[in-house]
């Protein structure tokens, strides 16, 4: 067992973890933050995407012990985030979710795409989304929602 | 409620919780004291189990079938005459019949610890020759999956029209062979089950990721040998189902047994490897279709041989017979087939049991039939589009009973195809094909048209004689004391948005704003009985039941309202959640107040059922209402890599009255994406030893955002004359046509090279192999 | 799908990492970003007794350009290269290749050294760095050594690294300003491992002409006969003839020949 200090959604947590505990299982089982879902545990589906030190990562492919001293943000932690708020509205209005299982990881990835985008080019947005699998929507609503939030943000100018 | 009832593009009530990570899936639940299980699974396809050795000191944490006292073998019966049931043990006993078959259940405080234990269990096998291929399974001398059957044929069905007489006068005879790969269904959430024993109720509380909670209750009670009242099944949020989650899983039974025995909560969460290799297999069909036609390609007769690889066992309750029964019955599709002969063989192999996946056999029959249409067109030298149009059932023939006694209730199939051709720009593509593309790729355009029997009921399922036949769908509606409404249904919504659409249907009748309507579903303890969500039935059946119950409730509300206003019942109507009389109106809140809190104000002749109604519904006839669609696709194919890109995809869809067009489109997009997966990407290949070759998403490719084009949808609306509001089912439809439309487009692109593909997925390697084989044939000639 | 138990050690420096690894008696594994190792551990296909985490070693994140070469610490992530947060000496080839690896969430963690050490035959870095004529630095109990990629890449998932050696960095020769490169891979979908990769570098000023075929299921291979013909476009049939004796089935041969042909053709079409 190893002692770690991880800041989860702004709250500093001291925890004792087995080295084999992934960040995803740490969030889900120890912190009861179950919005982060597991879809493949191979880093291929993107369902478990969270921010680690402000960058999206597959939380199934990170050991919690390796996150010592770093901040983590999961879907539960974007309450005051303007881009996430816009994405939530757009996802609902564009029908970008059905069963909702991929949605939290999709949103975390989408937010990163929005922040890094200088245009709403469909092909590029689709390429950036390619690492997050959705089995329900055919990606139509997701692509529309992400492009819409990019456009809205560019129209507003840099915050 | 103006603008929020049937036909409204209402935003979904389900969304907010998921957008905030507050959905509640089985894996999100962890009652205190919960243990987790992992299964020891067979590493070999076919072997006798000589011995299972539990790790020393862990004997009480490892369970084999011998330990599972009282648990019955899973036997899904069917009344079809040649059907052979299989005894599907919850944990393998005697022998293993597929790689991934559960052999022992291991318990730990965490899943990791359960897996540690599973790794320590030693199983001693005596290898048997595997049956890895459905066609070879019929050859003499093939090993037997179930020795007592005497062969590997699980079901044989046939229909024997006199083909020879037609053949003699046919101008053309065209034979098309095709094969659909075994694939997995892959909801993003795998199967999950959490069982705990409630001492106070004397009841097993089972949270399980299912589409059919009431069926699972029956299945668990039957196989655990306890009474149905002792089981409550709750489907919380379910992360997609697609058919996989409408069958009873052996792991589900094992976990429930353990929870009951140990009186502590037990959870099993299927991981992705288990899902791909051991559980959710689907689709594997093989067809040889011979068409006899006249000079113009009009079909005179179809003669088909169908093989279905159902794996080692028959799933409960839908059985292994569903695929072949549907294949034989639905192969004629939307076309006029005057003479029809078909022979189906349902083959057992050493692979996981085949389960019904979105569309069940229909994507395969559409693939077989629509490839045949294109083959006919090539043979007679006409446009596939025209040959297809010529063979479709015309609108003037509706309603139409086809050769297999399917009753097409309404629609204009040729119009759907014509619109698809127009939308895709068919003539412009034919022009484009005359000149070579600058990048050297080949352009192809393909079509497919299907008709889909949806919400078929008692008469259809009882003919198959499976364990549970759907009947009168029930719904409960209850006016609340404050004028809001509770709707309770036994179906289950896992992405289809029924918390929204069923509220829209209730709102349409009762005029209550959907914002004040709650829909409760997926809990046997709280909802009336239903066989659940499958066969594109829920919006027709549960929607119909909600409508009927609401219609009864609205009469009762009006009677109370009329009394309160002291006017005749004939003089009132409802609008915007009020009973409106000639001069005044009463809010439903008043009706609620009077019934619940001030009954002294009720009329003497009040209905004693109050403001709560449960009633049943079944359309008449209940043979299903037929939604239909035409798909058109343009592909660009790289002849040196075999890579296919979808440039454009068009769907012209007709599901009768649309309750929520946004959700209809969403279901269609998602279905098409899955169909694209079937067409181009998804396969669990098995080697000759019966070993699965795809066990993660690195080998099993799911379409991503780059692989699904921007799909364009157009609607026609042909309401069903036989259902509430003319609604037809449509959840599965999108997935049916893409394998056929894409194959036809690829073959259209390949035509200059003389190559053809006929098996899914049409991977770059398969396309390239077809091209190289055509080249070799040419140079040999 | 959970890993078996293991011990974890955060290495304070390269020497520490080597000592930890050496003490594990061949059962230790180095973890940088973990994007190749953890999938194997989750499946229990890899069950190391000790994981030595090198992500904290600053030296391994170093990236610098000197006269003749670019040095990239093994812990440099794909995303750092993609975003050009590291210097480039390859006229844009490294950022191009980096941006095509898996997905952003993986590229944020995955490292160039980790990918090389994993030596997945379908991965991008082994092919790209081989065609660039790169070499790797490794440190073990007996000291440091530098290995050419040719010597380092032994086979599929197999390298010349000893079980107690740590791959510390990659040395990439600097391309001349007028040097040209191409990198053509065939994937069935974005982010998937390649089914074939053709890569070429033509740097007449330095007298370098290299062609590599990757994604074949074996270690990426230098194709000398194709390199000889790098001055002009190469047709698929000619490329296939070059691969005649390589032991591919006809479909694979055609696919690989196409990748070679397109890589070479693209080097001539800006």
Overview features:
heterotrimer, B: 781 residues, alpha+beta, five-stranded mixed sheet, 18 helices, 28% helix, globular, C: 270 residues, five-stranded antiparallel sheet, four-stranded antiparallel sheet, 11 helices, 14 strands, 30% helix
What does this structure look like?
The complex is a heterotrimer of chains A (159), B (781) and C (270). Chain A has five helices and five strands, in the order ββαβββαααα. In chain A, strands 2-1-5-3-4 form a five-stranded mixed β-sheet, with helices on both faces. The model of chain A has no long low-confidence stretch (mean pLDDT 97). Chain A has 159 residues and is of the alpha+beta class. Helix content of chain A is 37%, strand content 16%. Chain B is 28% helix and 23% strand. In chain B, helix 4 crosses helix 5, helix 13 (498-510) runs parallel beside helix 14 (538-565) and helix 16 packs across helix 17. Chain B is globular and about 95 Å long. Chain C is α+β, with helices and mostly antiparallel strands. Chain C has helices spanning 14-23, 37-42, 78-82, 93-99, 104-107, 112-118, 124-131, 149-152, 224-228, 236-242, 250-266; strands at residues 7-10, 28-31, 50-53, 63-65, 69-73, 135-140, 143-148, 153-155, 158-159, 166-173, 180-186, 196-203, 208-214, 221-222. Chain C has a five-stranded antiparallel β-sheet with strand order 4-5-10-6-7. A four-stranded antiparallel β-sheet of chain C has the order 11-12-13-14, with helices on both faces. In chain C, helix 10 crosses helix 11 (250-266). Chains in contact: A-B, A-C, B-C. Chains A and B meet through helix 2, helix 3, helix 4 and helix 5 of A and helix 1 and helix 16 of B.
């Amino acid at each position: 067992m190893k002692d770690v200090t991880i800041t989860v959604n702004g709250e500093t947590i001291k925890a004792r973890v087995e080295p084999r505990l992934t960040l995803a299982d740490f969030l889900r089982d120890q912190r009861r933050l179950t919005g982060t879902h597991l879809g493949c545990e191979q880093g291929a589906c993107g369902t478990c995407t969270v921010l680690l030190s402000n960058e999206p990562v597959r939380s199934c492919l990170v050991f919690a012990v390796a996150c010592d001293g770093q901040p983590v943000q999961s879907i539960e932690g974007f309450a005051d985030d303007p881009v996430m708020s816009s994405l939530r509205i757009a996802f609902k209005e564009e029908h970008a979710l059905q069963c909702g299982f991929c949605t939290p990881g999709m949103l975390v990835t989408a937010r990163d795409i929005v922040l890094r985008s200088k245009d709403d080019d469909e092909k590029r947005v689709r390429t950036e989304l390619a690492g997050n699998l959705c089995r329900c929507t055919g990606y139509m609503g997701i692509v529309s929602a992400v492009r819409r939030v990019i456009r809205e943000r560019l129209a507003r100018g840099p915050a | 409620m103006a603008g929020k009832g049937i036909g409204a593009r209402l935003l979904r009530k389900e969304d907010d919780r998921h957008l905030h990570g507050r959905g509640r899936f089985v894996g999100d639940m962890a009652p205190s004291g919960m243990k987790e299980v992992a299964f020891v699974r067979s590493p070999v396809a076919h072997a006798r189990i000589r011995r299972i050795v539990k790790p020393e000191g862990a004997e009480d944490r490892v369970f084999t079938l011998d330990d599972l006292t009282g648990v019955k073998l899973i036997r899904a019966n069917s009344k079809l005459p040649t059907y052979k049931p299989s005894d599907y043990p919850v944990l393998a006993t005697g022998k293993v019949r597929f790689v991934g078959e559960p052999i022992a259940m291991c318990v730990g405080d965490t899943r990791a610890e359960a897996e540690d234990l599973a790794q320590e269990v030693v199983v001693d096998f005596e290898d048997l020759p595997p049956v890895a291929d459905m066609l070879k399974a019929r050859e003499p001398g093939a090993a037997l999956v179930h020795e007592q059957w005497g062969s590997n044929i699980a079901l044989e069905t046939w229909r024997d029209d006199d083909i020879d007489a037609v053949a003699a006068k046919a101008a053309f005879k065209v034979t098309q062979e095709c094969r659909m790969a075994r694939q997995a269904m892959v909801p993003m959430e795998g199967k999950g089950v959490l069982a705990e024993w409630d001492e106070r109720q004397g009841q097993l509380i089972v949270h399980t990721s299912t589409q059919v909670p009431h069926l699972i209750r029956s299945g668990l009670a039957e196989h655990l040998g306890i009474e149905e009242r002792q089981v409550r099944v709750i489907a919380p949020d379910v992360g997609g189902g697609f058919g996989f989650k409408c069958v009873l899983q052996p792991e589900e039974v094992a976990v429930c047994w353990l929870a009951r025995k140990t009186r502590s909560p037990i959870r099993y969460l299927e991981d992705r490897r288990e899902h791909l290799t051991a559980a959710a297999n689907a689709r594997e069909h093989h067809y040889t279709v011979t068409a006899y036609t006249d000079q113009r390609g009009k079909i005179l007769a179809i003669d088909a041989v169908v093989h279905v690889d159902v794996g080692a066992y028959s799933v409960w309750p839908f059985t292994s017979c569903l695929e072949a029964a549907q294949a034989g019955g639905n192969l004629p599709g939307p076309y006029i087939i005057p003479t029809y002969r078909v022979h189906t063989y349902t083959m057992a192999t050493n692979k996981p049991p085949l389960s019904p996946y979105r569309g069940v056999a229909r994507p395969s029959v559409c693939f077989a039939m629509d490839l045949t249409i294109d083959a006919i067109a090539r043979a007679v030298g006409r446009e596939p589009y025209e040959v297809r149009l010529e063979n479709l059932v015309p609108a003037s023939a509706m309603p139409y009973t086809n050769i297999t006694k399917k009753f097409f209730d309404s629609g204009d199939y040729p119009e759907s195809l014509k619109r698809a051709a127009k939308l895709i720009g068919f003539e412009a593509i034919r022009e484009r094909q005359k000149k070579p593309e600058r990048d050297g790729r080949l352009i192809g355009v393909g079509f497919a048209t299907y008709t889909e029997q949806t919400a078929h009921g008692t008469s259809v399922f009882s003919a198959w004689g499976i364990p549970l036949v759907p009947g009168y769908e029930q719904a409960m509606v209850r006016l609340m004391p404050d004028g809001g409404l509770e709707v309770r249904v036994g179906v289950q919504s896992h992405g289809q948005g029924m918390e929204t659409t069923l509220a829209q249907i209730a709102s349409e009748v009762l005029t209550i704003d959907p914002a004040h309507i709650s829909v409760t579903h997926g809990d046997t303890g709280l909802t009336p009985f239903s066989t659940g969500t499958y066969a594109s039935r829920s919006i027709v059946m549960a929607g119909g039941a909600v409508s009927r119950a609401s219609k009864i409730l609205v009469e009762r509300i009006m009677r109370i309202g009329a009394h309160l206003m002291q006017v005749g019942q004939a003089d009132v109507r409802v609008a915007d959640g009020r009973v409106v009389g000639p001069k005044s109106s009463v809010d439903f809140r008043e009706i609620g107040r009077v019934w619940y809190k001030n009954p002294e104000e009720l009329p003497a002749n009040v209905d004693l059922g109050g403001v709560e109604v449960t009633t049943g519904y079944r359309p008449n006839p209940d043979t299903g209402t037929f939604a239909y669609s035409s798909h058109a696709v343009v592909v660009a194919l790289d002849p040196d890599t075999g890579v296919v890109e979808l440039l454009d995809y068009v769907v012209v869809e007709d599901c009768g009255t649309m309750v929520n067009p946004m959700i209809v489109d969403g279901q269609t997009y998602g279905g098409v994406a899955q169909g694209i997966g079937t067409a181009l990407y998804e396969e669990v290949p098995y080697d000759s030893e019966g070993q699965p070759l795809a066990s993660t998403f690195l080998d099993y490719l799911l379409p991503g955002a780059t692989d699904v084009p921007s799909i364009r949808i157009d609607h026609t609306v042909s309401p069903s004359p036989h259902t509430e509001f003319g609604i037809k089912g449509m959840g599965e439809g999108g997935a049916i046509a893409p394998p056929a439309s894409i194959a036809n487009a690829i073959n259209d692109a390949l035509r200059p090279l003389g190559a053809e593909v006929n098996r899914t997925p049409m991977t770059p390697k398969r396309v390239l192999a077809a091209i190289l084989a055509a080249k070799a044939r040419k140079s040999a000639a | 799908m959970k890993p078996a138990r293991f011990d974890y050690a955060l290495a304070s420096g390269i020497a520490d990492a080597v000592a930890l690894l050496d003490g594990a008696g061949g059962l230790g594994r180095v973890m940088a970003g973990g994007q190749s190792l953890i999938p194997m551990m989750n499946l229990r296909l890899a069950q190391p007794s000790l994981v030595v985490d090198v992500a904290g070693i600053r030296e391994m994140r170093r990236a610098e350009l000197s006269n003749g070469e670019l040095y990239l610490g093994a812990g440099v992530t794909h995303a750092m290269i993609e975003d050009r947060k590291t210097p480039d000496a390859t006229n844009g080839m490294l950022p191009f290749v980096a941006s095509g690896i898996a997905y952003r969430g993986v590229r944020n963690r995955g490292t160039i050294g980790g990918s090389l050490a994993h030596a997945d035959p379908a991965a991008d870095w082994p092919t790209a760095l081989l065609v660039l004529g790169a070499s790797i630095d490794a440190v073990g109990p007996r000291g440091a050594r530098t290995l050419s990629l040719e010597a380092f890449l032994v086979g599929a998932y197999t390298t010349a690294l000893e079980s107690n050696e740590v791959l510390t960095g990659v040395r990439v020769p600097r391309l001349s300003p007028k040097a040209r490169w191409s990198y053509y891979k065939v994937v069935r979908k974005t982010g998937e491992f390649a089914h074939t990769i053709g890569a070429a570098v033509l740097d007449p000023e330095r007298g370098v002409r290299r062609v590599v075929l990757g994604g074949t299921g074996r270690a990426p291979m230098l194709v000398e006969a194709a390199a000889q013909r790098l001055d002009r476009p190469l047709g698929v049939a000619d490329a296939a003839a070059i691969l005649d004796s390589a032991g591919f089935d006809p479909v694979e041969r055609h696919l690989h020949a196409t990748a070679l042909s397109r890589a070479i053709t693209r080097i001539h079409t800006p």
